[in-house]
Amino acid sequence: MEPAGKFPYTRGIHPTMYQGRLWTMRQYAGFGDARRSNERYRYLLEKGQTGLSVAFDLPTQMGYDSDHPMSSGEVGKVGVAIDTIDDMHVLLEGLPLDEVSTSMTINATASTLLALYAGVARARGVPTTALRGTIQNDVLKEYIARGTYIYPPRASMRIITDIFAWCGEHAPKWNTISISGYHIREAGSTAAQEIAFTLADGIAYVDAAIAAGLAVDDFAPRLSFFFNAHNDFCEEVAKFRAARRMWALIMRDRFGAKDPRSMMLRFHTQTAGSTLTAQQIDNNVVRVTVQALAAVMGGTQSLHTNSRDEALALPSEAAARLALRSQQVLAYESGVARHVDPFGGSYVIEGLTDGLEAEAGRLIGEIDAMGGMVSAIERGFPQREIQNAAYAAQLAVDRKEAIVVGVNEFVEQEPPTEGLLRVDPALEAEQVGRLRAFRAARVERAAMDTLDALQQAAAGTDNLLPHILTAVEARATLGEVADALRAVFGEYQESVIL
After folding, report:
1. 24: how many CB neighbours lie within 10 A of its CB?
2. Do both 161 and 238 map to the same domain?
3. 152 burial level (CB within 10 Å; 0-12, 13-18, 19+)
4. Which of 324, 355, 361 is nearest to 234 (CA)?
């Protein structure tokens, strides 16, 4: 068996793994407005978090300003509301952008959020070449599993490849995409489906970038992945190993990559939100710890641990601190960081790794036969597969073939849970007021001119990122940028999957 740090990287992408450097502890956070979220980021950094991870509210994800009718009731509820470059300035206040690594879980509007981040950096005198972080930017999985898409798939692919090209020149330290299996698993997929559909999405992005004229080794080293850490401990360890090996082979044999960094599957992991229960929430601490340990044993590069109260509300400060402490206990007390691929050579782990690779490879073969992932999505193939897997999993719980502690076995009467985080209902009106004042104070013609130029670029072949950056620096809003692109690309309407 090859050692860690050697192709095909089954045992890890670095020879010493955590002996040389621990995984990044990147707790996902964002709620309310930019000021409240900034306070949470500062709190987490003070408690030992080593990277930022930003959650955005649904209007921001869907390209609507906070005063749009579609935003009513959703502003700041499941993440932070970001409408303007002023909001981004407040969100990042006091944070050293040339030192901290920032992950932004954003997809359909990823180009705009990246432009806002770059605009804030430029205003502070920080060159974009110094910025480090990740945008999720994985729209294909939105059509498969999550639903926060705006434009049709082929238009979305153009935006993504424009981001690849712009970052290659202007932000070379930035990870241009985090190809996400997390939401595929949250929607109910099996472990093998999570690997297959995630890597098939990756193949589609590489194909699109090459078709756009980019050389594989110019952009592939900045691709990253995002996986779920679920409950079946041994299967999860094997899943990460199998995915790493498969990606290395895909990049070398299918795409002819020569740079070893192009073949290394670097990934962030989040523990499984879908496994958290509203019943007996303290049990979630145990679930999250087991899942986090699987991610570490599988060789993750960064990790978010969910909070005990997330089945009921956004995480409270105390719950978020305990979730971070869980990682710190694993890192500094358990001893697991002293060993590289501790389960390598185990009959169980090696057998599961091989089995998951074979099943995921079979599914990728089916997708290839359909003409690739975009065509497979248009035909409803991955959506159908996930729906069937989710139905089977729920039946197993209903029939008690799968035990969920506190839900279908070991059930107890519980008092109401205290101390849950509640978003201030006055926040939405405050955010709308700031947005309208922002519009009133800008030079309207200058903002509109940049949006007209963006629309013309979208109708042509120019890279869209310079136009989006110019627009947000001219004080166009996120919703206005999205609307300019909607006018050219239209909106995607999902077909009924039977």
Report:
1. 18
2. yes
3. middle
4. 355
Residue 433 lies in a domain: no
> Token pair for residue 259?
């740079």
Q: What is the pLDDT of residues 153-163, one digit of tens each?
A: 999 999 999 99
**Domain extent at residue 41:** 21-334+343-384
Residue 227 CB partners (closer than 8 Å, separation 6+): 181, 182, 185, 194, 198, 239, 240, 243, 267, 268, 269, 295, 300
Residue 496 has pLDDT above 70, yes or no: no
| Residue 316 is assigned to a structural domain of this protein | yes
Task: Check whether 231 has a pLDDT greater than 60.
Answer: yes
DSSP, collapsed to helix, strand or coil, labels residue 437 as helix
CATH code for position 263 = 3.20.20.240
List, in sequence order, every residue forming a beta bridge with 268; answer none if it has no partner. Answer: 226, 302
CA dihedral over 39, 45, 49, 54, signed as positive or negative:
positive
d(CA 181, CA 178): 9
Q: What is the chain's alpha carbon radius of gyration, rounded to the nearest angstrom?
A: 22
Q: Can you tell me the distance from the alpha carbon of 28 to that of 136, in angstroms, rounded to the nearest whole number?
A: 13
pTM: 0.91
Structure tokens at 291: 């899942």
pLDDT digits (tens, 9 = 90+) for 271-316: 999 999 999 999 999 999 999 999 999 999 999 999 999 999 888 8
Based on DSSP, count helices (H) and strands (E) in the chain, helices before strands.
Answer: 20, 10
Q: Is the peptide bond before 8 cis (omega within 30 degrees of 0)?
A: yes
**Which residue intervals of 124-181 are DSSP H helices?**
140-141, 153-170
| 399 Rama class: left (phi>0) / alpha (psi -120 to 50) / beta | alpha
The predicted structure's pLDDT at residue 111: 98
Q: Is residue 389 part of a domain?
A: no
Q: Is the pLDDT of residue 498 over 60?
A: no
Q: Is 426 inside any structural domain? A: no
Q: Please indicate, yes or no, whether residues 168 and 243 belong to a single structural domain of this protein.
A: yes
Written as six digits, the tokens of 314 are 């956004």
Other residues' Cβ atoms within 10 Å of the Cβ of residue 84: 25
Residue 51 is predicted with a pLDDT of: 78
What single DSSP character describes residue 67? Answer: T
Q: What pLDDT band is residue 398 in, cutting at 50, 70 and 90?
A: very high
pLDDT at 30 over 90: no
Total structural domains within the chain: 2
Position 69: which residue type?
A: P
Same domain, 176 and 86: yes
